[in-house]
Design brief:
Layout lengths: L11 E10 L2 E11 L4 E5 L6 H8 L7 E6 L9 H4 L2 E4 L11 H9 L8 H7 L15 H13 L5 E5 L7 H16 L3 E5 L3 H7 L2 E6 L2 E6 L6 H4 L3 E5 L5 E5 L3 H11 L6 E6 L3 H14 L30
Parallel strand pairs: 3-7, 3-8, 5-6, 6-7
Antiparallel strand pairs: 1-2, 1-4, 8-9, 10-11, 10-12
Amino acid sequence: MTQQSSSGSAVVRVRGLSKHYGDREILRGIDLDIAAGETYALLGPNGAGKSTAIEILEGLRRPDAGEIRVLGQDPLTAPRSWKARIGIVAQATAEFGPNTPRELLNYFSTIYPNPRGVGEVLELVGLTAQAGVRANKLSGGQQRRLDVALGILGQPEMLFLDEPTTGFDPAARRQFWDMLRGLTAAGTAILLTTHYLDEAAQLADRVGVLAGGRIVAEAPPAELGGVEARTPVVTWTDAAGQPQQQRTLEPARLCTELVEAAGGAEPREVEVRRPQLEDIYLGLLAEHAADPEPASQPGAAAARQVPASNTHPETAGADA
């Protein structure tokens, strides 16, 4: 896994990012750093502000406050050459019209100084067999692959992926993951949003949970939530037929003690469950909903737990 670089060498550096739509506060002072070769997964429920944050980093939306640098530039004032260094796969599938994937990739490759080969890109996203099919005749999943193809065509240094694998079948998702690992190995930084928690666990060096406009927790997937949240849970049914449950860092020892206490008889319906990323994530959201005020200031260490966050016409009812 790639380690986060210092602020001076971060591909993305954000301090105090805030955004309102009318009287609705979408983002409330977000801090964020992403290093070269790092995949950062930004998780959160629909409407949490993930897409808004990404669009600000892409230079497509203006923040109300904060310092934002992507590849050393303010996205709002960056020169045209900066845009060739980033790749974007937006949440919504683009309108491709009657052009074929090969035609689209050939056309857009002319705007990049060092594009990938069109054939290579088609193979990477699994569209070689559909290269000559009109894009508006492709399936939804194939059109999504074409979105991804256009996003990686320019060999970006910074790649923004907003729910990129929606509509992918399991085999295509695995192939996509392998492709992303190849990109990060070559130094590309990736900011990923996804509702597939297994995808975040597989790909991310770090995950951040966005709720109430704030990043309420941030850590490598295996450390998110801290030791207590990741403690295994042992459940069983006692001699009286009552369900029992206990958290313990030594589940094998507890099971042995239960057997001994029962005179050598194995307790009924014993199960040891180790919390997965989805369990931790849902627990953090529930914790935030119960106590929405921040426990510490933004900008804490990478494993911090910071409880948090005019209707926008394009995102009303969707993920803001």
